[in-house]
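Exercise: predict the fold of this chain.
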Amino acid sequence: MNLQELEKTARALVAPGKGILAADESFGTIGKRFEAVGIESSEENRRQYREMLFTTPGIGEYLSGVILFDETIRQEASDGRPLSKVLEEQGIIPGIKVDKSTVNMPLSPDEKFTQGLDGLAERLAEYRELGARFTKWRAVITIGEGIPTRSCVEANAEALAMYAAFAQDHDLVPIIEPEVLIDGDHSIERCYEVTEWTLHETFDEVHEHGVELSGLLLKPNMVISGKNSSEQAGVEQVARATVECLLRTVPPAVPGIVFLSGGQTDLQATQHLNSMNSLYEGLPWELSFSYARALQGQPMELWGGSTDKVEAAQKAFAHRAKMNSAARNGRYSEKMEQEAA
């Protein structure tokens, strides 16, 4: 393990004013998103869509990295360049999702366990050859009646830590993503409780497996009300609850925290990130973003599979990236949205 290289990459991924695009949707996920806007989910359409995003002019000013899917890291742009090279030429670090999605927890079908440890070492070696410099693994924690169970939280925490150890062993920065889902009618207080527990367990396992904290990043959910809750917490309440939870659970040696947007609208995700960075100074880690839908929703809808709409979609994508870049510094305002419109 080359710790110096890992630390350098981790710090570059949370460089001031920059964040990460999550473009690692599985076939099923991107298929649903394409279908919703009338696009056929063919290999060629997926390739064209991601090429459209990655070739957006100047996007390297706002993005430090992009998480790719297995199919995407093997694809080429229309001019023959590997898509990973397209990113590198924009000054963006290519990464790769390495988990193999979730299955129902045995004897607890309302909970999920993330699979993918089998053969992981061999896949990591290949991904590094294909240009990846960081990786991501997502665990899913559901809040409901009687759940999450201890067995679910502990099993997913151990898998995250084992994955992170494998990644660092191959000189790839691991992003660990223990996501407490927004689905449900739970309160923000219940989300706080489960998030705190999940993060405690995850970092206990990270320590047990000898993973170097300075060479990893955390991709957590924000502490937020369940989407079906009758009481929805305001922007500042979400920001304060999230940061206070992180202060109690995340070691200061971790270079950065890159939030997932997880069911929020694109504006909500930007507002929450901005509020955290404007309310707090001197935190031990960078607070950044690793958004999928919150960056891609409008560009995908505008593009619609049409080459005539590439420029409009790229403008929308660059705008959302710029807004989140401003939120990284606590300088975002709704006026910036209006000025762009």
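Check your answer against the key: The CA atoms of residues 79 and 86 lie 10 Å apart.
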